[in-house]
Design brief:
The structure is a single chain. Helix 1 packs parallel to helix 4. A seven-stranded parallel β-sheet has the order 3-2-1-4-5-6-7, with helices on both faces. A six-stranded parallel β-sheet has the order 10-9-8-11-12-13, sandwiched between helices. The chain is 40% helix and 14% strand. By secondary structure, the protein is of the alpha/beta class.
Length: 407
């Protein structure tokens, strides 16, 4: 007990609160300083700044960057990274300029880039302000989207505030279906122009057998010591604000047994936790049925090697949807999740993915999987979303960038 009647735990709380407050003040001061310092600098019509919420070289911005590199266009790409990603030695192409989030170089490059490309609302989170002749393109980070994220359900009011701010700055939103167009317009991007090109990161899922993608699949198998004849189930649950990671554990051995009975051959499970749950990525290393791929930066690459997809409420399964391979949902905490975390935009029962609320139920769904019924349900869902994803989003967006950069 201190002289002021505050015990040790309370002291730590107030210390933490004070640290967060001064960190926020520091960011505001840095923003104000950099705003006035760089606002008069000329904008480079050949420079594009890209970032993702994860800070890795991944998602839709990565796919766009790769298309620019493939076409050998004369654009300078500035990629925004998190400090921890550099410390973890994540791989980035050599011809990108890397800048750390919130750094002096970040604000300088942001102020002088012709185009900003974001997959969330990260620019406003970093206290940036778009200039009149700059263009902001929102790619978002999923297909269709199952979970509501607007102010009526989002517990993070600060995120909502930043989403509205970035929404006002956004010039274009990438979409892959009519459902998504209406969703974006009804939330934070009311005035942005919709670009019905599809999602760049999904292009590779329409080109599974290309020489480049086959090479990537082989490299992933080599990295994780997976034999070419072994079938793979990719299990990647979403992040939960209210509940713990233990809720999403599988009976891995039982699931593998069910997979081998229903589909034949040898199977294993790639497990990839959400990047905010990396601390929980302590799976049993002695279990030969599991491969921990949590630290692999881009889940899209992993979809290429996955014969079956499994999640709970994560939007990646609606990207994997385009492979037309089987997908399943494991939702043991669905009542708690919808009450405490997120509500859904549509009932998960309307998706083509068989649903298991217990490990036993999931195994039964696998054992009784009906391929012909899955194909019918797939088409019904595809038509309901009014989807126009075709695998050419990168080419279409880069054509738009050429137009923007020439203005």
């Amino acid at each position: 007990m201190s002289g002021f009647g505050i015990d040790a735990s309370e002291g730590k709380f107030f210390q933490s609160l004070g640290t967060r407050f001064w960190k926020y003040v520091d960011r505001v001061i840095a923003y104000i300083y950099n705003y006035f310092k760089f606002q008069t600098k000329p904008i480079d019509n050949h420079k594009i700044m890209m970032l993702t919420s994860r800070g890795s070289y991944n998602c839709n911005p990565k796919a766009v960057a790769e298309e620019i590199r493939r076409q050998k266009l004369p654009y300078k790409i500035v990629w925004v990274v998190r400090k921890e990603n550099l410390m973890n030695h994540e791989n980035y192409p050599k011809n990108l300029k890397l800048v750390q989030r919130g750094s002096y170089d970040f604000y300088k490059e942001a102020a002088t880039s012709k185009v900003w490309i974001d997959n969330s609302v990260t620019f406003t989170y970093l206290f940036t302000h778009k200039r009149k002749k700059q263009v902001l393109i929102e790619t978002w980070h999923g297909s269709f989207g199952l979970k509501k994220f607007d102010e009526t359900v989002n517990n993070n009011k600060y995120w909502v505030k930043k989403a509205y701010q970035e929404g006002k700055m956004t010039d274009y939103c990438l979409t892959n279906c009519k459902f998504e167009e209406e969703l974006f317009r009804s939330t934070f991007w009311k005035n942005a122009e919709m670009l019905p090109y599809g999602h760049p990161r999904n292009d590779m899922l329409f080109q599974m057998d290309s020489k480049e993608n086959q090479k990537l699949q082989n490299s992933i198998r080599k990295k994780y010591h997976i034999d070419k004849d072994t079938h793979i189930l990719l299990y990647a649950p979403t992040y939960r604000e209210q509940s713990g990671a233990a809720l999403v554990e599988l009976a891995y051995d039982d699931v593998v047994e069910a997979l081998e009975k229903r589909f034949g051959g040898k199977w294993l499970i790639m497990v990839r936790y959400h990047f905010l749950d990396r601390l929980y990525a302590n799976l049993d290393k002695t279990n030969n049925n599991i491969v921990n791929v949590t630290n692999y930066p881009d889940i899209q690459d992993l979809m290429l090697v996955a014969d079956i997809g499994l999640t709970d409420y994560s939007s990646w399964i609606y990207d994997y949807f385009f492979t037309k391979r089987p997908g399943f949902l494991y939702v043991p905490d669905i009542d708690l999740y919808t009450e405490k975390d997120r509500e859904f935009l549509f009932p998960i029962e309307t998706t083509p993915f068989p649903i298991g609320k217990t490990n036993k139920a999931l195994c039964e769904k696998i054992l009784n999987f009906d391929e012909e019924q899955y194909k019918k349900d797939y088409q019904v869902f595809y038509d309901k979303m009014q989807c126009y994803e075709e695998g050419h989003a990168c080419e279409r967006l880069v054509e738009k960038l050429k137009e923007i950069m020439s203005e």
